[in-house]
Amino acid sequence: MAEQLQDHPLELLSCLQLSAAKALLRYRAPSLAGALQPGQFLNLKIPGYLLRRPMAPASQEGESLELLVFSRGPATLELMGGRREVMALGPLGRPFPLPPPGAGPALLVSGGSGAAPLLFLAARLRAIGVPVLARHGSRDGSEFSLAQRFASLGCSAEYFSEDGSAGTQGRPTDRLPELSGVSCAYAVGPRPLMHQVASACQRAGVPAWISLEEPMACGVGACLSCAVQTAQGQRHACVDGPVFPAAEVVW
Amino acid sequence: MTADPTGLEVELFGLRFANPVLTASGTFNFGREYAQAFPLRRLGGVITKGTSPRPRLGNAAPRIAETPAGLLNSIGLENKGVDAYLQGELPWLREQGTRVVVNVFGDTPAEFAEVAAKLAGHADLLELNLSCPNVHGGSLPFASDPAAAAEVVARCADVTDLPLLAKLAPNSELLRVAEACEQAGASGLSAINTLLGMRIDLQTRRPVLGTGMGGLSGPAILPLAVRCIYQLRQSSSLPILGMGGVRSWRDAAELAMAGADLVAVGTATFNDPWAAPRLIQELAEGLGQLGLSWTELVGAAHRD
């Protein structure tokens, strides 16, 4: 069998701090150029930490890619603190399926760090001429610039904050737009968010995809940590996902 | 006898191992995933995921949690059952040019034997998983009871000619269970399995793992492995397959000096998929600098 699994060096180019605990990091990753598809992830090796950290990139253009890092502990703080180089195993997992070029509008709903794979997806959808309705939400106003990013990619973007400090007060799943005009939907974020989008799409007969985040160790299907339940039986988020058809997930 | 320029070859159980480094059960599945990273023939062997007579779904999620110097896991022996592996993974693994050790698990001695009986021609060795802490509520019905462990070994020895390794828990019964397994016909000992631990989420105030407890592996348990292997070597003449927190060639050499004839790399693979082949390369260089072969290291801590 050909050896396809590789560790790629990521070299930090710039850091856009969104808040004390959230940052968009841009890396140079020449060996990954053109290799990533939206929804796939990299398993990042951070010196001093035994487990790698799986992250789905927020963009890839030529030799550069972006990671949206939300600090969940010292390892992710280490990344945000400007560690110059990290190793990334990948690309791993299955990407989001794309609608045919010129399809009707796609609905993208994200919460928190779930914006990362959907930003990458939005860029791809716009590139094939698919209009995008993007909704992003957070507890507060700290992620408003992510909604601006969706807008700068040519999406019709709306921001929701639970505390009302920016955009519309509420959640991105509140008053979802009329789904009859939508060709497909994608949701990434907390489980209730994805579940709500999945249910609405199922009622409307709109195909939808979500991305499941489960604690994982290897990222390649060997350790069997990231078991998820689907209509097809038990699957593993790292190799069978992380992207799954929303209708197949056992919520 | 051919010359061994690497100094790493090991002859045990009537088998030649190209080097003494295997990959530990549960960290390497049946090898196919990591065959995408390097040729498995570079390994001394692959120890498969625990294999039961029928499919097991495993434990509730979340199944893993990081710890300050290790990893807690509660996979719960998820596997497709021995028949599925006889069809798919094992014939493939046998063609990869490395030794194949199948880790065998059952809920009863009869179930262990049911799996063992099917593996002739599909494995070089069987590792009997007497000590998984993630099933039976962590009670270790075999690894905490010499008579029960001996029954598993004896029932398996009745149905297969393959060499049997008894995989032991680092508990107070270690030496008594080892002795009972030896008397029941075990060809070797495998030590150590993980130890039960727990982490609690500060926000939810509940255990992080779906089952509450999970087996601790990784660098934190290296000294425990060294101690257990040292004690086993003092009390038994059976070959020992040592594992527990091995990351570097020095860790492997330490287990060898304690008494391990072979070693396995486990959790380190999650951090670095190339951990085992890298360790083998560094071991060859390290031994070369010392002017020693692997077999000269084995048990060195017990000699004057």
Folded structure, characterized:
The complex is a heterodimer of chains A (251) and B (304). Chain A has 251 residues and is α/β, with parallel strands linked by helices. Chain A has helices spanning 74-80, 115-127, 144-152, 191-204, 237-240, and strands at 7-19, 22-28, 41-45, 53-55, 59-61, 64-70, 85-92, 106-111, 132-138, 156-161, 168-169, 184-188, 208-211, 227-230, 233-236, 243-245. Chain A has a domain at 2-92: Elongation Factor Tu (Ef-tu), domain 3, CATH 2.40.30. In chain A, strands 4-3-7-1-2-6-5 form a seven-stranded antiparallel β-sheet. Chain B is α/β, with parallel strands linked by helices. Chain B has one domain (10-59, 77-202, 218-302): TIM Barrel, CATH 3.20.20. In chain B, strand 7 (99-104), helix 3 (109-117) and strand 8 form a beta-alpha-beta unit. Chain B is globular. In chain B, 56% of the residues are buried. The mean pLDDT of chain B is 96. The interface between A and B is medium-sized, with 29 and 35 residues.
List keywords for this structure.
A: alpha/beta, Elongation Factor Tu (Ef-tu), domain 3, seven-stranded mixed beta sheet, B: alpha/beta, TIM Barrel, eight-stranded parallel barrel, four-stranded antiparallel beta sheet, 10 helices
Give me a quick take on this structure.
Chain A contains five helices and 16 strands.
- Return the structural class of chain A: alpha/beta
Distance between the termini of chain A: 37 Å
Distance between the termini of chain B: 29 Å
Helix content of chain B: 25-40%
Biggest sheet descriptor of chain A: 7 strands, antiparallel
Number of structurally distinct domains of chain B: 1
- Please write the string of helix (H) and strand (E) elements of chain A: EEEEEEHEEHEHEEEHEEEHE
Radius of gyration of chain B: 18 Å
Strand order of the largest sheet of chain B: 3-4-7-8-9-10-13-14
Helix and strand sequence of chain B? EEEEEEHHEHEHEHEEEHEHEHHH
CATH topology of the domain at 2-92 in chain A: Elongation Factor Tu (Ef-tu), domain 3
Binned, the helix content of chain A reads 10-25%
Number of helices of chain A: 5
Q: Strand arrangement, largest sheet of chain A? A: 4-3-7-1-2-6-5
Count every beta strand of chain B, where a strand is a DSSP E run of 2 or more residues: 14
Shape of chain A from CA axes? globular
Count the strands of chain A? Answer: 16
Number of helical elements of chain B: 10
Outline of chain B: globular
